[in-house]
């Protein structure tokens, strides 16, 4: 599933060079801010690793940032588990 999503994203970005540049800049900034650590997982055979799918959302009506990147932590892995499934749930502290 993850591979298919990456290929779909690559095809979309290759058809839209302006979007590809904006998207790449966003991802580069995200990495530079260390919000997206890149690690070699080959030595972590006992750790669980999740790759969170992401894609651009374009809103031409916005005056500031027309492209935002949306991450999908509810996407299921090959085991049928998502990142959201394994994160610790905390109680809601906001009033209804």
From TrEMBL:
What species is this protein from? Dryococelus australis
What superkingdom heads the lineage? Eukaryota
What is the protein's given name?
Answer: Uncharacterized protein
